[in-house]
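anyone else get weird line breaks when pasting these?? whatever heres mine. first is seq + tokens for prot A
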Amino acid sequence: MEFNTAGLISLQEALDKMRAYVPKKTAQDAESLPLATAAGRITAAPVLSPIFVPPFDNSAMDGYALRIADLHDGAVLPVAGKAFAGAPFHGEWPAGTCIRIMTGAPVPAGADAVIMQEQAEVSEEGVRFTATAEKGQNIRLTGDDIEQGDSVLSAGVRLGAAELPLLASLGVTEVQVWKSLKVAVFSTGDELQPVGTPLQEGQIYDTNRFAVRLMLEQLGCTVLDLGIIRDDPQALRKAFEEANEFADLVISSGGVSVGEADYTKQMLDELGEIGFWKLAMKPGKPFAFGKLKDSWFCGLPGNPVSAALTFYQLVQPFIAQLSGHSAWQFPPRLKAKAVTPLKKAPGRLDFQRGIFSTNAQGQLEVRTTGHQGSHVFSSFSQANCFIVLERERDSVSAGDIVEIEPFNALLRS
């Protein structure tokens, strides 16, 4: 079957073009922040450990520290003292004795091993051990986890609940991060009304800008919300100029189609340059990418599902790259058995919303959320993945194998 996709570029081509535009970051793009305010930010340089971890030889068990030379069959070793975490043993340690020691406590100088308390018989005379010991047994050596000067985080890592406590445990108080990306966002269309305002005849709520702002904030961006811009060239020009002055990236919703009142492409032609504006993707064909005087521009389609999908598949990775988040990637795609038919015509890469699960045999299977129209935003609240249907593929029958892309944290509740 032949299909007409003249003038449309593939998703991969679009991503490659967008990545090619991103300049290398410089030292001027970085800033130093206290750990307490660095959550969600991206490291601008490797973080080196200022200390050894652990900082001293310590016990991995509750038990007894001893010299292996004192340990022989039936020997009873008197207890010469105790060592606790935060309270090391500092007294005299005579030969032929042992030290009671707790997990995390510094190992006394000269100790060869720690024998766990479950392998010890305690009496008034001392301790007899029911197991032999090897040199270094149950002793965590200085720097066994991290050496002083080791790189514990590379550049381009997003700081979160796994990374920041690690830095705190090393005594790091400040970290070099890339400056937060500044993004201006607005919607276009006379039919739009802000959320919470009563609707008049022919009006709809501006859910796109609401959703985009939420996603931008989740991605750690500083957002300037310019609201709803009416279908007027002068108002749109003013919005573009204000956005360009503030932002690294400008995102609009609507106005990138081919209707008589779709002025966004016209403004982009006048104020900047267009990289591309038609994708061989469904939903999301009318997506515009380009450059303004001082900022990048992404124009999302007006339909809610199309806007969310193009943001997720195109704007999200572009923001990651602009932000210096080099470790960012989509969840890996998986193979699953379709348990419901999926309607599709060849011609465009199709991202349908699906619900995947594991069946009784341990196999992945996926079903549709139902109607896939670009206005059915409720499909996102039901779905946990995209069903990714290849550009050339026709409709899918129940039982066919398809590719799925689980949602990442941007869409997963």
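and prot B, same format (seq, then tokens)
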Amino acid sequence: MTESLKDTLSDGVTPSAIDYIAYEKTPKFIQLKKQRRRFVLPLAAFFFLWYFAFVLVAAYLPDVMAIPVFGRFNLGLVLGLGQFVTTFAITMWYVSYSNRRLDPLGAELRAELEGMDKK
């Protein structure tokens, strides 16, 4: 058994010539992280505010949640279902954003890293 094969089998990781810590500091990688953060953080903040507002109103203002909206549906039920709708909407929005902006940049970085690993 060759020495490199032993190294691979002993710890399950194939040795690489790439300095991943240094690669994290490249402009392209930093741009990818910045684009992701710029999208995720505001949406996460919005969702948590929306979620906790719903919980607090439900806990401390049950009369507000009991306001009839139409038929047997009250405001609490509509807002509760709105939680599901916003969760799916945010997920679809993120997937769309990622497909357009993040995935192409990630594929470019992956190709660059794969090229560096073959050298």
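btw re prot B: DSSP finds five helices and two strands in the chain. Helices lie at 3-11, 20-23, 27-60, 62-65, 75-117.
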